Amino acid sequence: MASTLVLGCMWGDEGKAKIVDYLAASADFVVRFQGGSNAGHTIVYGNQKYVLHTIPSGILYPDTTCLIGAGVLVDPTLIKEEIHNLEKANIDFSKRLLIDYRAGVVLPLHKQLDMENETKLKKSKIGTTGKGIGPAYSDLTARIGIRLEDLAYPEYLSERLKQLYTYHHKKLTDEELTKQIAELQDSWKFLKKYTGDVESILNDIANIKDKSILFEGAQGTLLDLNFGTYPYVTSSRVMTDAAGIGTGFSARRIDKVLGIYKAYTTRVGEGPFPTEIFTDIADRIRTAGNEYGSTTGRPRRIGWFDGVAARYSARINALDNAVITCLDVLQGLDELKICSAYKYKGKLYRSMKLHPSQFDKIEPVYESFEGWDADICNCKNKSELPKAARDYLEAIEDFLETRICLVSVGREREQTFTIKERKR
Question: Residue 299 belongs to a domain with what CATH number?
């Protein structure tokens, strides 16, 4: 059994879906282990664009089984819609999708609470997607949440819903309760054929030599609940060890961890972003890279590659190799920059050991690199890249202290090439 974990290593939107789709060609199983419909994974294949939110990115391969672990949140309405949309695109789901029965459920109440919280916070809002993810995870932590298996038991579900609304000091009439139970039961009738024990399947696979598993992370390490730029983070764990927590397949068994980075940096929502660009260069990169949120449609904030943050995420994830995406987006720029340190009150910091209140006052310290004009979208190996592009990649490797093994130079699956990987 071979297993690989693909992680976003910045603030999300690093191009994980394309890389998972590329690697899934040789994977028997692709597994999501955290997050929910707040994720937006976009894949372009054969002039067709697929936007996935909860279903793993390997679903486009007819021989690949997609698993959704217990650590993922499921919105019954949205996942049904996602399945229907893929079926309309002639994607065969026959025995190829399984959701762990322990997965938490996102309810309309959670979306209501999400928006209310953002409104209350005003100037200090987090900038969530409004999908109810934070409140749903909070309820599971408080041990009052609803799990997918609960939908099969209407009487039990009714009592749990009453407790949930009482906990949040929300009114729930008998009529509203009856309606919610009916809707959830209807969802269960549809989803039960996709529900099972993902943990046992994964651990059974571990004993089969010719099987391979690809774990797909959502969001990015700098949004991790513990190690991200708190409080502007997501509500789940987004690191290497989260794969075990979210599936029951221990991270100790994972053979290889790949960290995904864009050739520049983006962020959606609020929170610190030391290398953010406010000039017309940001608009140029945003347009060339189509930098708009897959889930919300919000324009992404654009910045230069942050070597400080990138090295931090490489270290805490114990990456084996790095993957660079969107290198083609930078072609045509005269100068590129990589942040090598943060300056705060005259002192240089080469780590992220600063308080959240200090990040807005940081001055990034940059190293500059020559840009290139050549179109690199058809490059099939590193040697075909312009020297300036090769130099830029090697500089990123130096900052990460991690070897780059894969480079994406376009949106299509085929616009990707490998570089010899580092041996463990």
Answer: 3.90.170.10
For residue 147, the one-letter residue type is: R
Using CA atoms, how far apart are residues 265 and 255, in angstroms rounded to an integer? Answer: 28
Does the pTM exceed 0.85? yes
Range in 48-52, 334-338, 351-355, 381-385 with the lowest mean pLDDT:
48-52
- How much helix, strand and coil, in percent to the nearest 5, is found in the chain? 40, 25, 40
Residues recorded for the chain: 424
Q: What's the pLDDT at 165? A: 96
Q: Is residue 423 part of a domain?
A: no
Instruction: Tell me the per-residue pLDDT of 207-222, one tens digit each, with 9 for 90 and over.
Output: 887 899 999 998 999 9
Which residues are catalytically annotated? 13, 41
| Boundary residue ending a domain (213, 240, 256) | 256
* Alpha carbon separation from 272 to 15, 115, 158, 167 (Å, rounded): 21, 21, 42, 33
For 363, the token pair is 């001055």
- Cis peptide leading into residue 154 (ω within 30°): no
Of 28-42, 153-167, 238-252, 393-407, the least confident:
28-42
Q: What is the DSSP letter of 298?
A: P
The CB density around residue 48, as the number of other CB atoms within 10 Å, is: 9
Those residues with Cβ within 8 angstroms of residue 235's Cβ, 6 or more apart along the chain or in another chain: 133, 134, 137, 138, 225
Same structural domain, 64 and 151? no
Q: Residue 47, Cα to own-chain centre: how many angstroms? A: 23
Q: The tokens of 65 are what? A: 């089984």
Query: 40 is in which domain, residue-wise?
Result: 2-101+193-256
Give yes or no: residues 121 and 110 share one domain: yes
Give the C-alpha distances (Å, rounded to integers) separating 374 from 308, 326, 329: 29, 15, 11
- The predicted pLDDT at position 126 comes to 65
